[in-house]
Amino acid sequence: MTEQAGAHTPVSAAAISATAPVAGCPSGRRLFGHPVGLWYLAFAEAWERFSYYGMQTLLVLYMVGQLLQPGHIESVAGFAQFRAVVEGVYGPLSIQALASAIFGIYTGLVYLTPVLGGVIADRWLGRTRTILLGATLMTLGHFLMAFDVSFLWALACLAIGTGCFKGNIAVQVGSLYAPEDNARADAFQIFYLGISAGVIASPLVCGTLGEVYGWHYGFGAAGIGMAVGLGVYLAGARFLPVDPPVAGKKHEARHRLSKTDWRVLGLLLAMLPVLALALLGNQQIFNAYMIWAQNSFDFSLLGHTMPTSWLITFDAAASVVMLALSVLFWRLWSRRFPEPDEITKLVIGAGVTVLAFVVLAAGAAQSTNGAKISLWWAVAFHIINSIGFAHLVPVALALYVRMAPKAVGATIVGIFYLHLFVANNLVGWAGTRFETMAADRFWMAHAVVAGVSAVILFGLQRPIKRALAKAAAESSQQGF
Description:
By secondary structure, the protein is mainly alpha-helical. It has helices spanning 13-18, 36-67, 79-90, 95-144, 151-175, 183-213, 215-235, 249-253, 259-284, 288-296, 310-334, 342-365, 375-390, 393-403, 409-416, 418-431, 439-459, 461-477, and strands spanning 30-31, 34-35, 300-301, 304-305. The chain folds into two domains: 1-254, Growth Hormone, Chain: A (Up-down Bundle); 256-480, Up-down Bundle (Growth Hormone, Chain: A), CATH 1.20.1250.20. The chain contains 18 helices and four strands. The strands form two sheets. Strands 1-2 form a two-stranded antiparallel sheet. The radius of gyration is 22 Å and the shape is globular.
């Protein structure tokens, strides 16, 4: 979330906004030591994430349980042509495999469109109008999910809307603070807490409504959440930073990349597929894992059956706790020993992810003759995987911010999310193989993929450290 902290030389509207002084804000009011605008942005983002993860939690279960079944699939506008394209790539697909492929395509696009959203904001609309466009499209998309006929249109609205919203609202958070203000880091932590609150609550509300009362009730709740988020953003508009003028070609021409900058960019791009491999298993949680968990775990709890979607709430809560404990651990560690750099932590994260999927594979092996597996296997998996995740995405973002050439620092934020675009497309492809493999082998394959990423990241340690040292030397010579 702190991607703008490292951008000091503006070349685009996004970069300019990240380093704008506090005077650029229309209001100087503060709440608990932070600009009032921060709290509006965090609250709006909480509702946006509530709607996004509420819908995503239900998506595969809904497709397998209803949408792709005979009697429903025929009513989806344009689905025959869409399926022909998908199966032209993947081959003939069963219902579960088709659901996995669609999930991968959709979630992949969600992490590709922020690049488009950044261009729209930089070139034409500015941040505020782009965010409003995104929120409006997402609200429309969630309500369209309530009808089988508009399913594909709903996914399109959600993917484009998320791209317009996701990166630009984070840029606005950074724009509330002067470049030298150390409170920016705290602000992004508050912003992340808003995200976490939305992720934790959405499966409990949307997931329960969808699984217990009907899919469309869950999607409708997600739509209401996004509408509330849009209202919160509009209510706080007067407390947000004023949009800077959009960037022009003449402005960009003043900033040229050095040979070292190009080498750094090459390393950052090379790391994207490696990070995608490291996160393949984590992203699979929303796809094949949900189908397997629904059929494999014993969800009995105090005489009641717990909805499968509640696993996502537990995963989100575990992620928050493990992230906090990881920060605390490394602070205590650094008092007596040198703290590892980002690339070393990435290796650790990938290694822990391997262990998480070994545990999941071991749990899957316990199922014989259709016997249900103890839910404690899921608890162990989610806790260990959350430790790995805490050392992957947040750490990778920090590394990209630190390595990014200053002239293109804001652009790197959009590029960074491309690893999740790749990961989610791999998730869709891997999910199509779920029915053809034994469950323990399927999850062990995810452990192997994470292990491969750990080995590659370990091999990248020296080149990255050399590039960082050379970039730092050039930066100091140029007076930054």
